[in-house]
Amino acid sequence: MPVYAAISPTFSTQEESLDELVNSTFYAESMIKGTGTGAKKHATTLGRFEKIFVFMVDPNSSRGASLYSFFIACAAFTSCFILFLQTLDGPNHQSSEPEYPKLPNESGYYDADLVFTIIFTPELLIRLIIWPSLWHEHEYLTERRLKPFLRDFFNWFDVAAIVPFYTDLIFGKEKSFVIMRLCRLLRIFKLARNHSGTYILLRAIRASVAPISVALIFFTEIVLFFSVVMYMVDPSYDRNKPGFSDLLTTGYFVVVTVATIGYGDITPTKGNVASRCFAVMIIMSGTLFLSMPLAIIGTEFDRAWKQHAES
């Protein structure tokens, strides 16, 4: 997460360079508050927290920070890859699948998960401890404390990724949910946490919400209108055969067609000219519709990228 997002009182999306951040009024005021040895102790503690925080969240701050970020990214990718390997051996994970005889057994997967949990649990706890909003000596942030930390959804991903191991450890695998184990895949977002492009994309998507909502209204109107039309001109009364047997099924056909996917599981009846003509109209409407959200997001991303390059 960019440093500014953790300490800015307005949770601003305007980026600041590391030098601007360190030399900002925020740090200058926090360092000189108080007098005597207490002030020096406070400044030393805050400076130490700063260094650790910047080391963990800014890969460009030093070579060590870059290597640390690379190590965390590799560990996250490897843990997700092992989870994929686990599915190759069936639900029992006993290396019984003849096509994959060299896969680890269940204890091997457990040991691997233990190693990654040992890596990621302290990493999460350290980030929580050194998070700038938790520096209680700093009066400026006393009211906020955990709020910025909780607002960072990447932190929630980290929590969700390590929880399955502890639930299995406490309650046993028999009582844990499979969906919770799949939460380990959320570690893949560690690859995006400290990448500036992630926040540029999020900024572009956030700026696109209002105009895209207009496109979604248009999309809803297309689906509702053509669903009724197709159901009227080409109804199907045999539910054992694919066709427009109800409005929900017809709406599914319209959505798939507008999205230009076209599975082909439901098609207009052969010989029904009106149905096929309206299907062509749906296809054309879908082409026009898709051009709007793509253009909106593309424009906002280009604007956000230029702002990032100029800052």
TrEMBL record:
* Record-level GO BP terms: action potential
Residue spans crossing the bilayer: 65-88, 109-133, 209-232, 244-266, 278-297
Q: Which InterPro entries match?
A: Ion_trans_dom (IPR005821), VG_K_chnl (IPR028325), Volt_channel_dom_sf (IPR027359)
**Which keywords appear in this protein's UniProt record, sorted alphabetically?**
Ion channel, Ion transport, Membrane, Potassium, Potassium channel, Potassium transport, Transmembrane, Transmembrane helix, Transport, Voltage-gated channel
Q: Which GO terms describe its cellular component?
A: voltage-gated potassium channel complex
Instruction: Identify the Pfam families for this entry.
Output: Ion_trans (PF00520)
A GO molecular function held by the record: voltage-gated potassium channel activity
Q: Which Gene3D superfamilies match?
A: 1.10.287.70, Voltage-gated potassium channels. Chain C (1.20.120.350)
Chief place of localization: membrane
Question: Residue ranges of the Ion transport domain?
Answer: 66-304
Q: Where in the cell is it found?
A: Membrane
Q: List the membrane topology term(s).
A: Multi-pass membrane protein
PANTHER family this protein is in? POTASSIUM VOLTAGE-GATED CHANNEL PROTEIN SHAB, VOLTAGE-GATED POTASSIUM CHANNEL
Q: What is this protein called?
A: Ion transport domain-containing protein
Its source organism is Phytophthora nicotianae
